[in-house]
């Protein structure tokens, strides 16, 4: 649906390395619509909840520490097929296995510093949006270019 949304976050390594414009620019140029964006240092509790599914994995403590260092650029993007298409734009979790031309392939080297998160399904997207944003932080705006991007 055109109003499908995904939660996308640039991780602390992407911010520290000055990659915000390069990565956000790809999402913007693709045609997806930005509906929320904030830079924050997430609490350990927030990161733990975000990655709750992985809590029994050996890398979980390191993952939580990396993310909670911040800053993280948390975003919500909207558009038809946004969840699946952005996952394709990211490439595999391990940048060494991501197809060339994908974000993780082009900017990152290893799984533990793979720079960007994107929701993997519609249900997780809605849960993650609710975890990271208050409803009032989502901006309802009309984009004039939609007539040239959507039909
Ligand atoms: P993705 O971020 O592609 O959705 P995931 O949900 O399986 O991947 O894991 C979340 C993050 O956890 C991932 O982006 C990086 C980290 N991670 C996953 N597997 C890992 C591993 N084997 N070693 C270290 N970090 C890992
Ligand atoms: Mg995941």
Automatic annotation (TrEMBL):
Name of protein: nucleoside-diphosphate kinase
Required co-factors: Mg(2+)
Domain Nucleoside diphosphate kinase-like: 3-140
Active site: 117 (pros-phosphohistidine intermediate)
Domain of life according to the entry: Eukaryota
EC number: 2.7.4.6
Record keywords: Kinase, Transferase
A molecular-function term among this protein's GO annotations: nucleoside diphosphate kinase activity
Binding annotation for ATP: 11, 59, 87, 93, 104, 114
GO biological process: CTP biosynthetic process; GTP biosynthetic process; UTP biosynthetic process
Assigned protein family: Belongs to the NDK family.
